[in-house]
Amino acid sequence: SSCRCLHGDPNCWPQDRDWKIFNASIQGRLIAVKPPAWPCHDPQYDHHLCELATENWSDPTWRSDQPGAMMADNWEMDDARNESCSIRDPRSSRCEQGSVPVYAVNVSHVFQVELAVAFASKHNLLLVVKNTGHDYLGRSTARGSLSIWMHHLRELRFHGDLGCDQAEHCDDLGLDPAAYVTIGAGVTWNQLYEAALEHRRDIVGASCPWVGAAGGFAQGGGHSLLSPVFGLAADNVVELQVVTADGKRKVASECQNEDLFWALRGGGGGTFGVVVSLTYRTYPALENAIFASVNVTAKDRPSFETLLEEFARMNPELSSDGWSGFFNVGNFSLSLRYVLPNKTLAFARSSLNFLLGFQHNRIQTHYSLKSYASFYELIQQALCGSDPSCPNVGGLAGNPVLPASRLIPTQALNSFPTKVSRALAKIALDFQVPIVGAFVAGGQVSVPRDSAVNPAWRDSLWLVIVSVSAPRSQRKEAATLVSRANKVLIDITPGSGSYMNEADYNEPHFHRSFFGSHYKRLYEIKQRVDPGGLFVCHHCVGSEDWTQ
Question: How many CB atoms lie within 10 A of CB 262?
Fold first, then answer.
């Protein structure tokens, strides 16, 4: 059909009896979804439930447990229609459904996903897929839609082989009994890290522990502090089970449905089907991990630009030494949270010596180095500060977030660090937009792989993210500011790209920026596995065939 059927359209929306029959077929797992601030507004105001929502508004675990909540609450609203429902709004204000789905299937078994896909296809419904709702492009939700809520598919099983039908396609057969781990779509990285620790294994995963481990993270590429050592998350996916638009479950691997396997590793979530389970390669646990916290401040712009230039210049060498991590650029400030696996404190100090001992009368440096016994311990204590919500990495949940990003090639840091440093200074000082740099590429990320991962990742060392948080009344201006700030990075990196999971909602030329030379093949696969375009989301493969 040329248009999706949305809630409220009497000409196409399923009748009550259709929903009752469907609900019975999925064992009563259909939920009427309300915005998370629903109990805080008249006439349905409930003091106890409102107090619970208010207290937990910024708790990512609580938001994951709400079928209608997104991690960034701007995606619960419909700005185009001025519809919202927030704890920030007065009790007397009307609570609008906004962009929150009308119904959700609370999945407990895969057959419910198959039936939900078939029902949406039969009735031409707008369909979305959600686990935790951690999606900065709002792809986990949509106005007037039916949601497939994957949060309670919690299979978690370590095993020593792949069970592949064609042994020549299967690597590492018969090794460690925990060489692989298969997880359901509802498992989060925190849960997976804890399980991996018990098996003395490490997995390439997110720094935000409450991100879903089998959803859009890996399907979009998935960067990690361990990526320079082991590759991107998508590089470590060895099998997926996915329900495609025909309502059938398929296994995608190197020996089954190979094109779909290729597309699901980097081609984006919510596009080719509903991933119900995923299998990762695991690795023997790190011997230790050094965490470096470095804070540098400059007193004026010339010294700040000098600092940033030397910092940009030294990162390729730090990459060769094995470092990864994050850095923040603010108003005359640079802060680092860098990680070094399987090395000594003495080596770490020597490797960072230039920065730690930076001699400049208008620059001050403070730092600390600490060794942790495991990668999981480092994330929990050093990055998250023992706070389960980990605001130091992902920011507070329940706040509006407008990001944009650019992959910075290694060549740029080697050949024109001055140009890179001036761009960072311009964004931080002139635009007053905060910068988060993810130093998570290079090393094994640079190794070419046969997957749909954006080719720009293979040539890059940094992912630079700019983002702002703004109230609804200022969101349009804030989005324009973020795009203008990101264009500064685009202008100095022609031919590079962006990371689709932390990208500008208004990303220009998204086909090239998100997918590079892979787009043509991705589009062809999309047409084969989803010819009717049942799975459609913003700036996803095939989204140009639709308008909103």
Answer: 21
